[in-house]
Amino acid sequence: MNFYGRFAMVFLRSFILVIIPLCGICFTQTTGMGPSADVRDQAEIRRLMNEISDAFVVRNAEPFEKIYADDFVSVRGRPIYNSKQQLVAMMRADSALLKARKKLDFETIAFTNEEPDIRIFGDIAVATVLKNNDWQFRGSTCLTKYQATEVWQRHGSTWRLIAGSANTFQCSPVPWHPPHPAVAAIGDVTDPPLADPAKTETVPEDLTAMLAKVSAVEQARLDDALKAYFSWSYVSTDTNGERSNSGMSLIQVFRSAAEPSQRQSIDLEHFKVLGSSAIYTFRLRTRGRLGTTDRGSSVFYLAALVKNVNGWQFVASHAVPASVQFETSSG
Question: Is the pLDDT assigned to residue 30 strictly greater than 70?
């Protein structure tokens, strides 16, 4: 190699040793704390999820009282507005039995979260996760899986769980078991709590206008609607527990409900407005066919939305088939 070749090699090594680290410094300075802050929030939410799972196994009510919002809503076959109270009652009742050295009828052998996907949207976070509940009732064991979507809200420096939905996949056969006595004593609250005008924001007009626009989207403008009304990191879970990053199926839900010939309608709507974010639950009801055995069906949706400079956008949705009990009781 001649003099010029050796000079070029020395210069290239110097460039790599000096310029590449400098670029790393520049990248750190220009990106700021955004990515690292998200990582810290994700780690904290993951820690809280595991704290809840561990508490469920040992029947410790404290994490449920601390981490769950008082108005937490759970959608599993139907919306339940007192799930926190049910869980706390169950933990306290079983904890008292354990302290008295009595054996539980309902036992949780293990409750684990497979690696959750956690996405941060300012003061709102969406976690999608597969949960494994290894339990037994009077010696009969079962592994129940839940494909879940959880919505978390930041309160100062802490995160609280404000809503959740899950598709349940039971073992087969499922051991016979009655409702937990503490949960049965409380019962299910399926009607949303009455809003306190002094504490609850009304549904913003621009949010209802956005939903109306989604319902009226023309076939030729579907791609534009996806860009306008869905976050680039939107995530959905369908009734089979399958995840997707496309908002197309949710758009079709609203379009079908707006078209009378589709025999579908949206009802039982409830909004929980959280400043620049919102939780939206509703039922998509498909009417049966006259003269046939088709009695129709229903699907409950839990959706999370955030407002940014471009307006309201969906960041997550979860669909769960309505329970048979709910369909029978609601008509």
Answer: no
Q: Is 135 helix (H, G, I), strand (E, B) or coil?
A: strand
- Of 60, 108, 89, which Cα lies nearest the Cα of 188? 89
Both tokens of residue 270?
Answer: 């409830």
For the chain, what is the mean pLDDT? 87
Q: Give residue 28's pLDDT band: very low, low, confident or very high (50, 70, 90).
A: very low
**CA distances in angstroms from 252 to 215, 257, 259, 330, listed in the order given:** 8, 8, 10, 25
Among the ranges given (198-202, 209-213, 229-233, 302-306), the one the predictor scored with the smallest mean pLDDT: 198-202
Query: Cα separation of 221 and 168, whole Å?
Result: 35
Of the candidate CATH numbers 3.10.180.10, 3.30.300.20, 3.10.450.50, 3.30.1330.60, the domain formed by 205-330 belongs to: 3.10.450.50
Question: What average pLDDT score do residues 59-71 get?
Answer: 97
Q: Is 183 helix (H, G, I), strand (E, B) or coil?
A: helix
45-186 and 205-330 agree in CATH topology = yes
Q: Where are the domains of the chain?
A: 45-186, 205-330
Both tokens of 175, joined, read 């051991």
Q: Cβ distance 247 to 234 under 8 Å?
A: yes
And the tokens for 197? 């005008």
Count other C-beta atoms under 10 Å from residue 321's C-beta. Answer: 14
Rounded Cα distance, 243 and 232, in Å:
15
pLDDT at res. 195 = 58
CATH architecture assignment, domain 45-186:
Roll (3.10)
DSSP state of 204: P
88 in Cβ contact with 56 (< 8 Å): no
For the whole model, what pTM was predicted? 0.84
